[in-house]
Design brief:
disordered C terminus, zinc ion binding, name from scop, 14 strands, 24 helices, Rossmann fold, six-stranded mixed β-sheet, five-stranded mixed β-sheet, about 700 residues, transmembrane
């Protein structure tokens, strides 16, 4: 097990191979030499030795015709054959100067000692025969001397070198797997693979995050605060016979603050805090996951009372037996079995509380979710209007804002945003303001940041024909018209025909925040989604592929109304949705083929009915729809004030009117002109910088 100090020390050693010698901090001992530099030095030395071996000083290569000529000229003093492969030619001292030109390019000219040339003999019998033939007419014949030599360095390198490389490779793999060694603060290595990889935050290593940094999430924060209180004063609860909860599971969509809550617990609790991810238990070797679970709980018992936090627990907590024919899941299931045993087995872990987080609670094993293991399930949902305001207050602290920026207005412009999305909005608005050389962030920067996050980056240079532009304008005007004229449809905020991302046009709505949805509300939303396709058919007499996303949304919504929400009279009050997520062994639909045909018929009736309704609304307001489309072609961007001028106010929807102070007052008309002016300035500023 390595703590933050050891991690920091290791990082310093990586940055400085010789470390930083400080007698006071190191007790007068020099720091250890970094291992990675040793590997590098060994490799460089090996390459240098090989280079000099291959390019060392020595005799010049020659050929048999040249050797034959040397023999006939009487220049050869003696010939030594090494290992029956290489013939070394020694010249007479008074004949060396005749061959000095051949020695150029070598490291140095050969000495009088020799050897001066070398020759590959080939078959030794053939070489001996050639020597005899070449010296037939010579009186002073040269007879070869045969010797054996052993190159110990080369033989050792080629014999044991590959094995050394394999051993070093395996050692490096094990060292990388152990990532510095967990469990007990070891230095890492092959024997620490099964150690826990958890980070420990003890009393001397407090986390800076606390509950004050967690905005919103009032109910979830209260549950977590109570867990911290259990550890601070357990006697308050145990004196009445109660037991401290063993575990709490944080469940919610991504970006809602589950990990942030765990960080706040680490900052508030005065007990050791173990933090790790579910993927840290997964390894390529059999039994490593279960070993790490055992080591984690062993350390937790030694430091009890303490808190263990496992992020993304679905990596090891998936329901067992989903794929009974696949043996690859055995290791993950063994890890889960060990976790179940440690959490609630014969050996009770008194004083150890488990916190876990996941956004896929529906796939977790039921044995993991039962009381006695995770006694509490804390749901961390998307923030509502008031909670979004609190989150904005946290993320707006470091930003330099203009006076016109109001938190209430920003909270109303971001329905359905998570805490991470709101943080992204604040950061993106600061980048946009800096790009425009502003001294402070204005309201328009936040609106543009929201548009960019939802719809993507504007593509003003995308080539679109006039016919396509007309189709897009009437399509988006159809959505806007129907959403404005139907009571339960979401009120419009802005419509644009400037391409964003993959969409050629986009509309922004301000949905009402509600906990339940009625059938009338769903039908109005369905008619509004079909308004674009209906507008194309009425205006041009033909349809396009631009309504693909609308049709996909409507189809899913209609099937949900019939088969899940029980909103069809013929199908009845029946729901075929399994909210427990445990229907893993069902290989057939939970209804007959006749019921499936009935569901398809009811879905088609629903969609066809709302399509006819959308066409009827557009035909009844054809003049207003056409005027809105032409205005969209002229300006490319229109706001809710433009629809109000064309169709009038929505009498039933005062609560949806966008306001800054929450009193229901509409924005003044001058603000629309200001927006258009700001948008024009923005376009003129950004045009040269477009990619």
């Amino acid at each position: 097990m390595t703590d933050n100090k050891n991690n920091k020390k290791d990082q310093n050693n990586l940055n400085n191979p010789f470390g930083k010698f400080n007698p006071k901090k190191n007790d007068g001992k020099p720091p250890k030499f970094n291992a990675y530099w040793i590997y590098g030095i060994i490799a460089v030395v090996f390459l240098i030795v090989q280079y000099y071996i291959s390019n060392s000083k020595g005799p010049v290569d020659t050929s048999w015709p040249e050797v034959k000529q040397m023999l006939q000229n009487g220049d050869v003093k003696r010939i030594v054959v090494i290992n029956e492969k290489i013939a070394r030619i020694y010249l007479k001292e008074n004949r060396i100067k005749n061959y000095e030109s051949q020695f150029e390019g070598n490291f140095s000219k050969p000495s009088d000692m020799g050897p001066h040339f070398k020759l590959n003999t080939g078959p030794i019998e053939k070489f001996a025969e050639n020597l005899t033939v070449a010296q037939e007419n010579q009186q002073d014949k040269v007879f070869p001397v045969y010797e054996d030599e052993t190159n110990w360095g080369r033989d050792i390198i080629w014999s044991i070198g590959p094995f050394v490389l394999i051993i070093l490779l395996w050692w490096w793999i094990f060292r990388r797997m152990s990532r510095g060694g967990g469990g007990g603060g070891g230095a890492g290595g092959i024997f620490n693979v099964g150690k826990s990889q958890a980070k420990v935050f003890d009393k001397d290593q407090k986390v800076s995050t606390n509950f004050k940094d967690v905005a919103g999430l009032a109910e979830a924060k209260q549950e977590v605060e109570e867990i911290v209180e259990f550890l601070r004063s357990p006697s308050k609860y145990t004196k009445l016979g109660g037991k401290i909860p063993k575990g709490a599971l944080l469940v919610g969509p991504p970006g809602t603050g589950k990990t942030l809550l765990a960080k706040a617990v680490a900052g508030e609790a005065n007990v050791p805090f173990f933090s790790m991810s579910g993927s840290d238990f997964v390894e390529m070797f059999v039994g490593v996951g279960a070993s790490r679970v055992r080591d984690l709980f062993k350390q937790a018992k030694e430091k009890a009372p303490c808190i263990v936090f496992i992020d993304e627990i679905d990596a090891i907590g998936r329901a067992r037996g989903k794929n009974p024919n696949m043996g690859s899941n055995d290791e993950r299931e063994n890890t889960l079995n060990q976790l179940l045993t440690e959490m609630d087995g014969f050996d009770t872990n008194s004083g150890v509380i488990i916190l876990a987080a996941t956004n896929r609670a529906d796939i977790l094993d039921r044995a993991l979710m039962r009381a006695g293991r995770f006694d509490r399930q804390i749901h961390v949902e998307l923030p509502d209007l008031n909670e979004r305001g609190e989150i904005f207050n946290v993320h707006l602290r470091p930003l330099k804002l203009s006076e016109e920026v109001k938190v209430d207005f920003l909270a109303k412009q971001t329905p359905g945003f998570s805490g991470a999305d709101i943080a992204n909005v604040c950061n993106e608005s600061a980048l946009i303001a800096a790009r425009r050389n502003r001294d402070a962030i204005v309201k328009q920067d936040f609106l543009d940041a929201v548009d960019r996050i939802i719809g993507g980056l504007e593509k003003k240079n995308k080539i679109i024909s006039q016919e396509e532009k007309n189709t897009i304008a009437y399509h988006e005007a159809g959505h806007a018209t129907i959403s404005w004229l139907l009571e339960y449809a979401h009120p419009l905020v802005k419509v644009t025909i400037v391409p964003r991302g993959k969409a050629l046009g986009a509309a922004w709505y301000l949905p009402e925040e509600r906990s339940i949805t009625t059938k009338d509300q769903l039908l109005d939303e369905m008619a509004s989604a079909l308004g674009g396709r209906a507008a194309e058919e009425i205006t041009f007499g033909k349809i396009s592929s631009g309504a693909q996303n609308d049709l996909e949304k409507v189809t899913k919504q209609a099937y949900a109304m019939v088969s899940i929400f029980g909103m069809s009279e013929k199908v009845g009050n029946i729901s075929f949705y399994d909210s427990t997520g445990q229907s893993d062994y069902s290989f057939t639909k939970p209804y007959s083929e006749k019921t499936a045909e009935l569901i398809d018929q009811e879905v088609k009736i629903l969609i066809d009915g709302q399509y006819k309704r959308a066409k009827q609304v557009l035909q009844d307001n054809k003049e207003g729809h056409s005027k809105l489309a032409n205005l969209l072609l002229e300006r490319e961007v229109i706001f809710s004030e433009d629809l109000e001028e064309i169709f009038g106010k929505r009498p039933w929807d005062k609560k949806h009117v966008i306001s800054e102070n929450g009193n229901g007052e509409t924005q003044p008309k001058a603000e629309l002109k200001e927006k258009e002016k700001t948008k024009a300035e923005e376009n003129s500023e950004e045009e040269p910088t477009k990619e």
